[in-house]
Amino acid sequence: MTMSLSADLWPDVQPEAARRLMLAGVESFARRGYHATTTRDIASGAGMSPAALYVHFPSKAALLFEISRNGHQQALALVREAAEEADSPVEGVRLIVERFVTWHARRHTVARVVQYELQALPEKEFEVVADLRRGIERIMRDLVVRGMESGDFTVADPGTAARAVLSLGIDVARWYSERARKAPAVLGEEYGELALRMLGAKVD
Amino acid sequence: MTMSLSADLWPDVQPEAARRLMLAGVESFARRGYHATTTRDIASGAGMSPAALYVHFPSKAALLFEISRNGHQQALALVREAAEEADSPVEGVRLIVERFVTWHARRHTVARVVQYELQALPEKEFEVVADLRRGIERIMRDLVVRGMESGDFTVADPGTAARAVLSLGIDVARWYSERARKAPAVLGEEYGELALRMLGAKVD
Which residues in chain A touch residue B32, judged by CB atoms under 8 angstroms apart? Predict the structure, then answer.
């Protein structure tokens, strides 16, 4: 179960032992926070010795960075693909929000670490992740601006509106759990509508 | 400086030493997380001995509970007052979002602890706080339903919409900092408009 989940979460990470450590890291960080988690906790969560952990990650910070960088790369990739697939700003915002919300609901434990443990990253690593975040924000902001130019959106401040649209998705990671009444994709569709309304699109 | 800020944050808490400990707790929890903070860290942040901390709070959990309960009571009070002041669902949602967002921006460090350290509360204390949260959600949901009945709002699912409106405000605590370009009250006004649009209100 753990092995297949880790492969599902991080298909590009090799070997399997590294993925298992990342999964154990996510679980510990989400439960107790980054600072209160020891490398021993993580290693034992992955059924490994602390020495075996260091074969794959030189430090706890390196493990957090790998989780965070991977999560942000996945989010950026899905946002970029949705923007490229869409043939209008309205369609672009709808697709991005649907997939971004679905991802944050389905991957809520990973997403919680990715979104809320940023300040624990060392400065250089933080900058790498901040750059990925700016990429996501830029795509959304550009779409909002293009939609204003085409007359599809009416927005007072495209920066504020783009941030608010992404906020809706990010906050899903905070409250979503397996006990939520809604399936991730259903929630994504509803939020897609809500986001377009925020931007003043005529969708009704 | 510390003393006046603590009085400003918790006007109802007495004595001043308890407020100072709550402020030191907020700063430590926000920086390192609840689990990695010791009572010694908090006491020394407040310029007190660990023994002096126990005069006011029997445990670190009791201190977190007091911070969380107080923050949620403040949020519930401002939401309730806004709902009572307003003479329509449109006005109610606008006022709540304006004040809720302004509070989360202005009090972003406290709000971050209040919103993101819930799972660290012991079960009984969690239930007290969860009850206050349900109070906030109920007021927003009732307003959305009333607005649907009066024809002011058109919403597919009032529960989802009410949650999304509150999400916008909560997520402000995650990203807002003193370096943000917008003053809290200005952001509050912009978000008030965005929230009403989400609900399908005619505000333009």
Answer: 33, 35
Say what the pLDDT of residue A4 is: 59
From A35's Cα to the closest Cα of chain B, the distance in A is 5
Q: Which of the residues B198, B199, B202, B203 would you substitute to probe the A interface, choosing the one with the greatest number of A C-beta atoms within 10 Å?
A: B198
Q: Measure B80 CA to nearest chain A CA, in Å.
A: 22
pLDDT, residue A178, reads 84
Question: Residue B28 is encoded by which pair of tokens?
Answer: 């430590």
**ipTM computed for the complex:** 0.90
- Segment B170-174 shows an average pLDDT of 96
CB atoms within 10 A of CB A204: 8
Burial of B178 (0-12, 13-18, 19+ CB in 10 A): exposed
Q: What top-level class would CATH report for the domain B61-198?
A: mainly alpha
CATH of B2-57, one of 3.40.50.300, 3.20.20.140, 1.20.140.10, 1.10.10.60: 1.10.10.60
CB contact under 8 A, B164 and A191: yes
Taking CB atoms and an 8 Å cutoff, what residues of chain A touch B182?
160
Which helix (H) or strand (E) is A95 found in, with range?
helix A89-106
